[in-house]
Structure formats: C-alpha cells, structure tokens
Amino acid sequence: MTADQIRSLQPALVALLQKFRPFFKRNVTFRYFLFYIACLMAEIKRKSIEPIALAAGVPVRTLQEFLAFFVWDDERINDALHRMVADEYDAPHAIGILDASGHPKSGDKTPGVQRQWCGRSGKVDNCVVGQHLLYTDNDPKNPFCCVLASDLFLPKSWAADRDRCREAGIPDELEHRTKSQIALDQLAHALGNGVRFEWVTFDEDYGQNPRLWFGLDELGLWGVGEVRKNFLCWATLPAYQSGQRPFAAKRVDNICRLSPAFRNKKWRRLTIKDETRGPLVVEAKAARVHLVDATDPDSNKSRPTDRQYWLIITRHSQTGEIKYFVSNAPASVSLSCMLGAAFVRDQIERWFRTAKQETGFGAFEVRTYTSLIRHWLCSRLAMYFLATQTKRLREKKPGHHDGAGRGRREPSREPMVESSVADGREACIPA
User: Fold this and answer.
1) Which residues of 372-410 are buried (b: 16+ CB within 10 A; e: fewer)?
2) Which residues does the chain have with pLDDT short of 70?
3) Closest Cα to residue 385, out of 362, 366, 359?
4) Cα 319 to Cα 151: distance, rounded to the nearest angstrom
5) Whole-angstrom Cα distance, residue 68 to residue 388?
6) Nearest-angstrom CA–CA distance, 61 and 355
7) Contact 74, 374 (CB under 8 A)
8) Which of 285, 359, 385, 411 is buried deepest, with most CB atoms within 10 A?
9) What is the pLDDT of residue 107?
10) How confident is the model at residue 55, as a pLDDT?
C-alpha cells in the first residue's frame, strides 16, 4: 500500500490495534507493535527487519529485540483475534482450510530449517514449514478470509537436538508433531475461542492420514478432503478380518473403477462455482465406505471402521482430471454440498500470495522461535485489517477513514514513515 493509502486508513488501523493494548506492559512496546504492522503494509521492497528499520530510521537491533525479547503476550493477542472473527464474521457456511507453506531459507539458523518438501519452490529445498489454519465466511460475492493460526512444523532432526532447539529459543515442551496433529490442535483451539466451521477442508497430505479423520470425528467437525489414489478403504465390510488379499482394504482408484457401489452408478454433472475462466464443472460419483482403523496398538492387522465415510470421485468436464475425496459428513448431506466445500481450498493459496506481497508473510529473517511466531502474527493481523477494510468498502458501508466510499486515489510515492521511533516518543505509525 502507498503512504497516502496507509494514512487514510490510519484511524481504522489504530482503532483495531488498540483492542490489543491490554496485552502489552509498556507503552513503548505497544508503539513498536503499531509501527511494525504499519510497516508490513507499506511500500517496502522486502519486509524483513533490516529493510523496515532502514526505511524508517529505526535501529535494526531495536526491532530485532521487539520481536525476540520485548514483553508482550502474543498468545493472548491470537486468542483475541479468534474471538473477533467469531463475533464479527461468524457465518453459517464458514469453512476452515488447512495448509502448510514452505519458505525457502539459506543457512541453518532459522528455527525448523532443513531440507524438506517446499511447496513454494515445488521441490525438496532448504526451508521452514509453517502449519496454518484459514477461516473464510465463504461469501460467494464478497468473501472474508483470515488465517487464525500459524505454527512451526518442527522436524524430527530438530526435536532430537535439544541444544540446537534451545539456541533457537524453541521451548523444551515443543516436540515434533505431524502437520495433521498440529492442525487438529489449531482447530480445537479455535473452537475453544468461539470460532465455528460448517466444514474443514484440506489437500491429500492431510486426507491421506486416517488419524486426521478420527480427530475431526472427536471434535465434531465435518471434513471433506482430497486423498491419493492409493488411499485404502473397504466398499463393503469384509467377511473376515484377515490380511489375505481377498479381505484386505482396497485402493480407492480400484474401488471407484471396479466396485458395484460405483460401477453401477451414473456420473452426475455438477457446477461447483464460477471462476474467472468460466464455471467449474465436474462429473462425480459417491458411495459410503469404511476406512482403515489401525488404532489398536496390540494388533498388527488393519480392520474397518465401525462407521462409514463418503468416498467421492470427480472428473473435470474439460480436462478429464480425476480427483478422489473423503468426507465424514452424514449420509443425508448432498454431494453438491460436500464438493462445494472441497473446492474452496484455492482461497488459502490466494491468501498466501497476497500476504507475501502485501504484508511480508514469508520475508522473515530471524533466528529465534519467538521472533518467527510474532512476525507471522503481525503479518496475519495486517492481513486481517486489510480484509476487514476490503469487505467493508466492497459493501459500501460508511467508515471513519478518509478513503471510505471514494474513488481510488492516485498512488503517492512519499515515504510511508516520516519519523523514527525511540523510547518515550509518541505514535510510531504514519502521521
């Protein structure tokens, strides 16, 4: 955003961030909080600590200490964000989207960095991976999106080296967890703060893990997510619990191709949603199946779950691309409803693109766990503010900032920050 645009939104930004004032012990720390979030939205080429500090005339060391060592309760701020979303953007068709993002990094000091799969570069790369939970009200015309949680995925190699963890400020109680385990904890935390979801959706990296489905069952959440073609289940209960091939679980691609539960059904043609290139149309079939329940630690045999889940196969009407989905929704839920939720996952990809461009979400250059979590939090708060303003302006609601309801102004090239910040000075966002 330009300096003029930031200034026009300054009253609304201050009003929002003042809600978090009780979570800061010192006024000067809160001023840095205001300053840092405003700078994340400014026209700075790279929004890591050093470029922000140099552009604003602030000591680099001070900003580093603000993220790493200054006393402020980032956990309570995140809880407050949850409650704000629950109070102001609760919606009957809200959807939670699970996703992991990789951030390429050079060196070996950033918490959690190692060679691992990085979605951003599309290969195994030296990167940091974050596990994120996005909330969307799923409004088809004017959607509101907000990332409710961002947690570090701690690789096993890091968790096994506690000295390295302590050097990076990673708490001793933070152990290695799978992305699915982190995601379930994030969902439970959001539910505890009053956030409600009609659906939770995710890609095959999550759907492939049966324990995620059982976790969603325990939380009372409906999920619909993609699975790979080698995901195992039973179309009908086997006559015997045996590891022999005739009674073993089958791959979903074979079930959809050979089982009477699918073979005897006709394809249904469904229009899922409108896209920029036209409507998304798929052909689909669905049937109820039993997943593999391997939760008994005393048995080396897999057995079918007592309850049934949906197995869905879709075929793109133009490209012919095949996808497989599983859902724990009841038998009464329609196929179009399940697929409508499954195909909103692209919203989190758009959120990541915007957050990296507009609020420096992936621009962290830090060496402590606290700094990383706080940078992600500040970036998410900046994105929350932009989302609230975008939704309000699209709805043409009256506002108290100068730009509300007016035509777009020509961008200004003036510096966004006009004065540096120091202990005892007044507000450290644009005047």
Assistant:
1) bbbbbbbbbbbbbbbbbbebbbeeeeebebebbeeeeee
2) 1-3, 5-6, 242-243, 295-301, 396-431
3) 359
4) 36
5) 28
6) 25
7) yes
8) 359
9) 83
10) 82
